[in-house]
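A reminder before we start the practical. When you read a complex entry, don't treat the lines as separate problems. The point of joint prediction is that each chain is placed relative to the others, so the output describes one connected object in space. Small molecules and nucleic acid strands, if listed, are placed in the same frame. In the example below there are two entries. Take a minute to note the order of the lines before looking further.
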Amino acid sequence: MAEEIVAQFSKRFSGGPSINVDTLRIACGRPSIAVIFGASGAGKTTVLRCLAGLERPDSGVIRCGDEYWFDASASLFLPPQRRNIGSLSQDYALFPHLTVERNIAYGLRRSPATERFTRVSEVVRLLDLAGLERRLPRQLSGGQQQRVALARAVVRRPRLLLLDEPLSALDSPTRLRLRGELRRLLLQLGIPTLVVTHDRFEALALGDDLVVIDNGAIVQSGPVQEVFSRPANLAVASIVAVETVQPARVLNVAEGLLVLSVGETKLAAFASDFPADTRDVFVCIRAEDVILQKGESRPSSPRNHLTATVRCLTSEGPMVRIDLDCGFPLAALLTKQACEELDLKPGERVVALVKAPNVHVIPR
Amino acid sequence: MDWNAILLSLRLASFTTAILFLVGLPTAYWLASSKRRWKFLVEAVVALPLVLPPTVLGFYLLLAMGPRSPLGQFYESLTGQLLPFSFQGLLVASVLYSLPFTVQPFAAAFAGVDPKLIEASWCLGESRLTTFLRVTLPLSWPGVLTGMILSFAHTIGEFGVVLMVGGNLPGVTRTVSISIYDAMQSLDYAAAGKTSLLLLALSFLVLVVTYTLQRNIWAVWPKKS
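Here is the predicted structure of the whole assembly.
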């Protein structure tokens, strides 16, 4: 049965902002990852805490399938203990006085010893924690702590996993390495997951679906790539801030230079220490990094010369956004002056130039 | 040396500490975690023995436990004995008098436990009580031990309340500090000196242990930040 979490609630803070979630839907019958995305202070963490039962909304309804977790009109509020969710806080909150093994087994107190043992060894193997069982949390690296916290949450087989900025506590090289790994791990665990993040690349690397939150309200939701490439309005566009996002396949990697195919179009990209066996990626191109040139393609330094057709021009303050079709939709941002000099009109043929380092590649 | 008095004091302090441990845990937990507005009133009541003259506390206790008070009558109907001038009466007085010395270090230790850990435990299905036993208490044991040591030492040394509520009955209510006072009154400086030295050594030892365990609570010097 396709279970779904449906949440519609509001929460006011005295002297602070108010959170108004109007119908957040998370499919939790199949393993998929939804990302709640928004700037710091937009209310993402509060939404997560309300779902976990750590915060009580002022009004509204939260239900999972036909089980009500919160119903203001019936004064119903299920505490976190009875919601069967797994939660991972920003700094992982491992119990400092317990070993890795006892941290993982913490939530299995009521299970018989043999089952506890099988389940713990299962997640220890799955999350590659063998050999660390007797260590204390302070003797672990950030990445290891994250995996232990994840193990502790999933060992109880929750029906929903809530991750609050799962990568923010890590140093930046580890963060980049774990970004792609975490998605693979979560899909492998097969538990529907809700991730909160303020990092757009993290959102792209982790999520299937995206929920954009601004000022405590949901402004857009849908499949990740759709939200990023077709923001519903200017506010969403400025939050997601990347104009072109396309799924792509890696054809070749040599010394950091990648050859990718986006549909029929080939792209060159530059990414140092790119994981060698990754094939499926997202490419992101910011509109201000796209240079337009009229007439035939001439030799020049940018690696990517894309023949494109102008689809439409939209005025954005002093800038003009030009939507192009070069086999995939591509957006360029030009000054009004440049646009007038080039005399661009819809239907016209142009060449779009993009330097390889400006093609941002996000492994999936 | 008045060994009778020393043993009595040790017995009184042990019982007081045991009772305070049981009373202090829930009280301190409530103080550390409650968000009620009138919490400060409870805090003030708990801290009252710190500033109240022991004679005042003793006076009111004597009134409350006396044979004409409801409490005194209830206790008499239950046991056939009177509370004042008995070991049990002394115990009640000591518990109240040392309450802040238990509750304040307990509460400070509980409040120092990262709330994220407690919430993590809730999300892992553990109730508030089991979370307290499995996370909060193990992580605050230095503070809990400090509170117990302080109340033990404080009870050994109490004088005013004991004199008011218990009087000076050898073997029943004559504690070690009253025995020193007695010795001084009868000009037996040798006995007073010996017992005093013992108490001085004990107090010093207690403070050394306490400060070693817990450097943040009850610090005499301002903490270096």
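Discuss with your neighbour: Chain B is about 75% helix and 0% strand. What might explain this?
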